[in-house]
Amino acid sequence: MSKMLTAFLCIGFLLLACDSENEDVLNQTGIVVNQTSCGGGPEPVFIIKLSENDSIMTATLPKAYQKPNLKIQFKTKEKSSVLICTMDKIYPEHIDVYDVISI
User: Is the dihedral of CA 72, 66, 45, 62 positive or negative?
Assistant: First the structure.
């Protein structure tokens, strides 16, 4: 009986460990730079500057935080829609953001 209980506990821990690998990225900070236009997904689309050389693009920025030069903290997850942007510019990676707060 104890071998069976041990086996179930091991399987349970493995499932929890695998599930935690799929969790979203920890809090990030950035500055809302500007609004851009892309097709195929929700509009508007915003560029968020994370550092001097790194930015992301998101279509899930809540309306209350859609202000240029606003410093925000947020969590990210894999994109939920496909954005089709014009080829005349190089756009940063498209990521969904949530749990947004201004800082």
Answer: positive
Torsion sign (Cα): 25, 74, 96, 37: negative
**Cβ proximity of 101 and 64 under 8 Å:** no
**What pLDDT does 36 receive?**
82
Tell which residue, 60, 75, 68, 73, has the closest CA to residue 30.
73
Q: pLDDT for 21-70, tens place per residue?
A: 444 556 899 999 988 877 666 778 899 999 999 999 998 999 999 999 99
Question: Cβ(58)–Cβ(35) under 8 Å?
Answer: no
Instruction: Write down the pLDDT at residue 64.
Output: 94
Q: What DSSP character marks residue 23?
A: P
Distance CA 58, CA 35 (A): 10
Q: In sequence order, which residues have a C-beta less than 8 Å from that of residue 85 and are 6 or more positions away?
A: 36, 37, 38, 39, 45, 57, 91
